[in-house]
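#struct-pred

JT: dropping the chains for the assembly here, can someone run the whole complex?
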Amino acid sequence: MNRFPRRSEGVTGTVATPDQGAQQSSWERFEQLYRSSRDDVFAYVATLLGDRSTAEDVTELAFERAYRRRRTFDRRRGEERAWLFGIARNAALDELRRRKRHATLVVDPEDPSVDGPDDGAEVALARTMVRQALSKLPAREREIIALKFHGGLSNAELARVLGVSESNAGTLLHRTMEKLRKACNATA
Amino acid sequence: MRLLDDTPMDPEVAAALDAIDSTLAGEAVDPQYAELAELALLLADDRPAVDPVFAHTLDERVSGRFGGAGREAERPSRRSSWSGWLAGGAAVTLAAAVVALVVFVPGVDHAGSSSASSSAASSSAGSTAIGSASSSSSAGPAQEQSAPSRKASDAASGSRPPSVSRAQSRSALIP
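RK: done, full complex below.
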């Protein structure tokens, strides 16, 4: 029997005061984190792995690990979202090590579900160029893009996940964006 | 070595990062960052979407608190390892009890057969053993009294190894 009441369907966020947060159980905090981060974690992992099917497995694994370790979370070492992405990152890197694909992060093959809404030919072309440019970036820089634009992390969270200072993370992000922009311009 | 972490961020870099964040937040940016903003939008739009079937499956697993067999093979808990040890200990104790029963009970039964085998033919030893076994439950003290005399007769008959005599008595008990 489940002793804990289930929350309403469709709840995507909760406005919690510090007092409420202190009273929340580790399960409630985990559930909130899951609801707010599920899609972001998947998007990040999918970009990192370049394989949607494996990304689903790794996303599930990451949340399961986070659930098992939820009581060990230490707020003094960063926010929960950065903690969760750290777990997802490790799970994705484990997968890459398992496949011995450290240096060869591949881009998804043409997948209609990833193409997004119907765009004009110009936007579609621009998107293709960006994907090609992204695929040529080193793994580290691709990961920064994945964390920022697909994981939706702030620069501070990005720094936490990568284990660098916020200043360093910002510089790395800017450098990577400049690299991408030049690559796209060169292709055009 | 000078750490990059120690250096404050370049104002131009900070401004470009602010422009990216503003773009992602749907706000207008300075025209000088238009190209960067367009790239940021393209990257954000290219975000892999979650498959609804997978989303539903994962929601269910989270609601069930990852019950059952998970992706991650859980390490056995301390409690389960203790129960495993206890179960193993119980099994060993049971096995030891069974061995003791097999070894010692026929040894007691062997009281009659041994003396019989020393004095009578081996073909008749079986029936003697069966007879002593059937009577052992009711004639315990009498059997205890016969034990010293059995030892004496064994010694006199050339001290056959006890294991052999037990094996013989066991085979004699099998109908």
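JT: nice. The radius of gyration of chain B is 43 Å. Chain B has two domains: 8-67, 80-173.
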